[in-house]
Specification:
heterodimer; A: about 450 residues; D-Maltodextrin-Binding Protein, domain 2; 2 domains; 17 helices; about 45% helix; B: about 300 residues; MetI-like fold; 13 helices
């Protein structure tokens, strides 16, 4: 009886081990059927199209509606869209591409490529994904031609091939302002740094916080101050090169001007408690009339309108200089794009999806919903935010963050972040912070000599 | 001597029975650990199909000796030890106190035991959400309390030292339930006759605790100390959920995640440096190994002296 029991246990264990082999054999046996599905038609067989997107409420709302329409048109297709926080997008993208568990991915415009003057830097993640053969080459696809050649070249190309379609540019160096509050307090729209400081003092005296941001997500507070970098260094590609070759330092006289203004921004302009506001909640807080201004990207325009359609607001470049002529630039980046997973079993269906998305009428609706600066020729800036930035588009420049790659060995402070100042950080003295930032950067530069 | 499984071929039965468990351990635990060790000598990105090059000790050189970044890593190591010290001492003491209170057979014991243990099963994301709401700087409960006494704080978004302290609080809140339950289990193995005998001998409450409860709780003490120390040295999830990549707050466990998944630069196109992160994780492994083995040796000797 004892021996029988032991033999039974061993048999059960062997069955468990062998069942794994059986599963693999079953999956292999199913492969030919999958191949037949791909050959018989595009999006005509039972298919689940998996899409990964980052959290941007107006974009997610639009895509949800687009997906419903796509599924209605292609009844055998189920579109399964996953939405993650922007901070987690690259991590989840890597995981799902590696697991071959996604067909279409949301990818930001290609940036932070290694430049010839940079030593010993690692390639950005989009380049690694392409070199690993995980992103499909879209060169030659008809729908790619719907987009500006320059946008495709700047934001989606690598080694003369296109690997994504870029859906729009955004500016992140502007300020939304509450027109009603400005009028009620008799404050003119600031065109210079001094006017901005005075405006904030007026609002604070009236008991209204001057600015807010979604600081809980980390980046919104310091990105809100990027206009201050631009006011001192309008050519930000040159800034990055200068930092690398030593001709520009974060603690020279010009940079110190920037740090002094960042201290004012962090301590006197940004409301207390901003670091606890979620990124998605900040537009609503601004639209509620709780604060006078909201330094943020053009992608927030649609969310503000959705929160309070009757709310009257405007958008201006961050006036970081006392020379109004230096405050006419908008700094930003190529924002969201779509790419196709090279190993997707539904590649043709994914291409059809992008083709229908890229239809000019649909793209116009998308640009209107999200507030991007369009990357399709012929698409109009029909939105309120689009009309607000139209006058500055000729002065649109790609921002510092899109060029910067830190040298290995650089310290954690080697960045122009306003959040290093109290109450968000530990620094109070601009010179002390400037010296620390330069020292952290220099440490990396010296380590790679 | 009799052989349970007999002689001859039957003697292989215990090894066959152990084999599935061993295979599971090799695949799930030891295998990935060995792979991590090997990856630490490469520039692995974790991206399938990406080229991987052998770097030798370069990752370790960068982590330990290269520029200000290496000094920042030592700071993270220091913060890891500080985190471990405070979490262990407070969680251990609080867990013991709660166990002693809830082992009195008072009314509501089961209710309070459940309430205290509940955070353990919530997971880091829910734990973080609860505390983010509680510590919401614009009118959250704690902000209102501070307002009454004329203070304000950014809590998790403010001074790094304060943010770090709050993570310690959350870590303790999230895990004190386990410590308490282990101590309760230990207290319930102590025979009531021991307490009666001590009282008959005229021992007061403190003497009973010191001479009866504390020595007989040795196995539970050892288990809780090891769990607290090792768990806190490896902590990272709450740092991700509550703080993100904030200067002056990272511990080694979170730094490994941030480096491995491109969270360090603030840009969404940051590189994945999983080879480098693997080297950091090996450093953390040796830290945990040295501290864990030392602690275990001390505790085992103490247990032998007390219990025999």
């Amino acid at each position: 009886m004892k021996k029988a029991t032991i033999l039974l246990i061993i048999s059960l264990v062997l069955v468990m081990i062998l069942s794994a082999c059986g599963t693999e054999a079953t999956e292999t046996a199913q492969a030919p059927e999958g191949e037949t599905q791909a050959q018989s038609g595009v999006c005509t067989e039972e298919t689940t199209l998996k899409i990964l997107a980052h959290q941007n409420p107006p974009m997610v709302d639009f895509m949800t509606k687009f997906n419903q329409d796509f599924m209605a048109k292609h009844p055998n297709v189920t579109v399964d869209m996953s939405v993650v926080n922007a901070n987690d997008l690259s991590t989840v993208t890597q995981t799902r591409l590696t697991a071959n568990d996604v067909d279409i991915i949301d990818i930001f415009g290609f940036a932070n490529a290694a430049q010839p003057y940079m030593k010993n830097v690692t390639p950005p993640n989009w380049q690694t994904l392409i070199d690993a053969g995980l992103l499909a080459d879209l060169t030659g696809q008809e729908f790619v031609k719907n987009y500006d050649e320059s946008a495709t070249k700047d934001a989606c190309s690598y080694n003369n091939k296109a690997y994504c379609i870029n859906l729009g540019r955004v500016s992140y160096s502007g300020i939304y302002y509450n027109k009603d509050l400005f009028e009620a307090n008799n404050v003119a729209v600031p065109t210079t740094w001094s006017e901005l400081v005075a405006a904030c003092q007026t609002f604070e005296a009236a008991g209204t916080p001057c600015m807010t941001a979604g600081g809980k997500d980390g980046w919104p507070i310091f990105v809100g101050a990027y206009g201050l970098i631009g006011s001192v260094y309008p050519d930000q590609a040159a800034l990055v090169q200068g930092l690398w070759d030593g001709s520009i330092k974060w603690n020279d006289a010009k940079s110190l001007e920037m740090w002094e203004k960042m201290k004012v921004y962090a301590q006197d302009m940004m409301e207390s408690g901003a670091s606890g506001i979620a990124g998605d909640a900040a537009p609503g807080r601004f639209a509620s009339g709780a604060v006078a201004m909201f330094p943020g990207g053009t992608w927030y325009g649609s969310a503000i309108e959705a929160a309070q359609p009757a709310f009257d607001w405007g958008y201006i470049p961050f006036p970081g200089s006392d020379n109004p002529d230096e405050n006419k630039y908008l700094f930003g980046k190529y924002d969201q794009g779509w790419a196709v997973a090279e190993k997707s079993p539904n590649k043709e269906c994914a291409m059809l999806y992008l083709s229908e998305f890229s239809d000019p009428a649909n793209y116009q609706a998308f640009a209107n919903a999200v507030g991007f600066i369009p990357t399709q020729p012929g698409a109009m800036l029909n939105t309120k935010i689009g009309q607000a930035v139209a006058a500055y588009l000729a002065n649109f420049r790609v921002g510092y963050e899109q060029y910067w790659v830190a040298p290995k060995g650089a310290g954690q402070y080697a960045n122009p972040f306003a959040t290093y100042f109290k109450p968000f950080g530990t620094y109070d003295d601009p010179q002390e912070l400037a010296d620390k930032v330069q020292a952290d950067l220099q440490s990396g530069l010296d380590a790679n000599q | 001597m009799s052989y349970y499984f007999g002689r001859g071929n039957s003697k292989w039965i215990p090894y066959l029975l152990l084999f599935p468990g061993l295979l599971f351990y090799l695949v799930i635990s030891l295998g990935p650990s060995i792979a991590t060790f090997l990856y630490s000598f490469t520039d692995a990105t974790g991206i399938q199909g990406a080229q991987m090059n052998w770097l030798g000790l370069e990752n370790y050189r960068e982590f330990l000796f290269m520029g200000q970044a290496s000094r920042d890593n030592y700071s993270a190591l220091g913060r890891t030890l500080i985190f471990c010290f405070f979490v262990t001492t407070i969680q251990f003491s609080l867990g013991l106190l709660l166990a002693l209170l809830l082992n009195q057979g008072l009314k509501g014991t089961k209710f309070f035991r459940t309430i205290i243990f509940m955070p353990v099963i919530l997971g880091a994301v829910v734990q973080g959400l609860i505390w983010s709401l509680f510590l919401y700087p614009l009118g959250g409960p704690m902000a209102r309390v501070l307002e009454i006494i004329g203070l304000e704080s950014e809590f998790f978004g403010g001074q790094p030292a304060e943010a770090f302290a709050w993570v310690i609080v959350v870590q303790i809140w999230a895990n004190v339930g386990i410590t308490m339950v282990i101590f309760i289990a230990g207290l319930q193995t102590i025979s009531a006759e021991m307490y009666e005998a001590a009282k008959i001998d005229g021992a007061n409450g403190w003497q009973v605790f010191r001479n009866v409860t504390w020595p007989l709780l040795t196995p539970s003490i050892n288990t809780n100390l090891l769990l607290c120390v090792i768990g806190s040295l490896q902590a990272w999830a709450l740092f991700l959920v509550l703080l993100g990549y904030r200067n002056g707050t990272q511990v080694l466990g979170y730094l490994i995640f941030a480096q491995g998944f491109g969270q360090t630069s603030g840009s969404v196109t940051s590189s994945f440096r999983q080879g480098y992160a693997a080297s950091a994780s090996i450093v953390l492994f040796f830290l945990v190994l040295i501290i864990g083995l030392t602690l275990q040796t001390i505790l085992r000797r103490r247990e032998e002296q007390i219990i025999g």
